[in-house]
From TrEMBL:
<protein>
    <recommendedName>
        <fullName>EAL domain-containing protein</fullName>
    </recommendedName>
</protein>
<feature type="domain" description="EAL">
    <location>
        <begin position="24"/>
        <end position="275"/>
    </location>
</feature>
Length: 281
């Protein structure tokens, strides 16, 4: 009996695996088609410079306008893109679109910088710095208006770090995304220059709630300052968090308090033109 059950289980496992493989191949083909069918769209979220009390940057966040499944967030397909190598053309498309948007903002009289998330896979090989350089030349975008966001996972790869620093040498700003949630090594922070450190939402959530979190966030802001970097707080949802971060010397704020990621044409016009409402005390 045990043997027959075992065999049955093995067969259903094989069948399940077969379905998995088929589903994966379908998803992969869909994603490939999405790239050519222009189903990938960028939403932008405002980043507020606290010293200027206005929007100075915007982060590009990719979405998949899936013909059958609606609007999919990046957590639904970036993993697949990375596993299949499609992240490279996808990332190139995102970068090109974001630079184009920055140029449109500039021509419209609102020279916002754009921040683009870059996967470690895009930093494999030597091609990336040249692509960025060409893009800056063809679009005429000033290098300082582009920020490349990477997570701490790039630190595992020396070659990728060198590629990243080649990009930085072009004048592009480098941001450490989700700082403190991954493999944070003070040794790497010490060795490589970064322009921005993004304090992860999970820390922002604890402000005003938890002394230990507040202590850690103060240290991140101070550490960044010592290293010549500025800080961006992610996931700011309440005026109390904004006030706390301003008082602690944080450089920029990003979060639903100011605006959700959206198509630029859906942005509240005040986001581009008006000083942002920040806590007055
Ligand atoms: P991330 O770069 O850390 O982006 C911040 C995420 O937090 C975004 O989620 C944003 O919508 C969300 N967020 C911002 N403010 C708030 C807030 O106040 N409250 C809450 N609850 N959430 C907030 P999203 O758009 O789902 O993106 C998730 C992740 O997907 C990004 O995290 C980034 O790592 C990745 N991603 C997005 N676009 C790209 C891309 O073009 N290429 C690559 N490689 N990764 C991307
Ligand atoms: Mg990011
Ligand atoms: Mg982040
Ligand atoms: Mg993240």
């Amino acid at each position: 009996v045990a043997k027959r059950e075992g065999g049955g289980r093995a067969r259903s496992f094989e069948r399940a695996m077969g379905e998995d493989v088929a589903a994966r191949q379908r998803d992969q083909a869909d994603l490939r088609a999405a790239l050519t069918n222009e189903e990938l769209v960028l939403h932008y979220q405002p980043i507020i410079d606290l010293a200027e009390a206005r929007t100075t940057h915007a982060e590009a966040l990719v979405r998949w306008r899936h013909p059958g499944r609606g609007l999919l967030g990046p957590d639904r397909f970036i993993g697949l893109a990375e596993e299949t190598g499609l992240i490279v053309p996808l990332g190139a498309h995102v970068l090109r679109s974001a630079c184009g948007q920055a140029v449109r903002w500039q021509r419209g009289g609102h020279p916002l910088g754009v921040a683009v998330n870059v996967s470690p896979w895009q930093l494999a090989g030597e091609a990336f710095p040249r692509q960025v350089d060409e893009l800056l030349t063809t679009t005429g975008l000033e290098a300082g208006l582009l920020t490349v966001e990477v997570t701490e996972s790039v630190w595992a790869d020396e070659a990728a770090m060198r590629v990243l620093m080649d990009v930085r040498d072009l004048g592009v700003r480098i941001a450490l995304d989700d700082f403190g949630t991954g493999y944070s090594s003070l040794n790497y922070l010490r060795r490589y220059p970064f322009d921005l450190v993004k304090i992860d939402k999970s820390f922002t959530d604890g402000l005003g709630e938890d002394d230990r979190t507040e202590g850690v966030v103060r240290c991140i802001i101070d550490l960044a300052a010592v290293l010549g970097a500025r800080t961006v707080a992610e996931g700011v949802e309440t005026p109390d968090q904004a006030r706390w971060l301003r008082d602690a010397g944080c450089g920029y704020l990003q979060g639903y308090l100011f605006g959700r990621p959206d198509l630029p044409e859906n942005w509240h016009p005040g986001l581009l033109t008006d000083p942002q409402r920040l806590p007055s005390t």
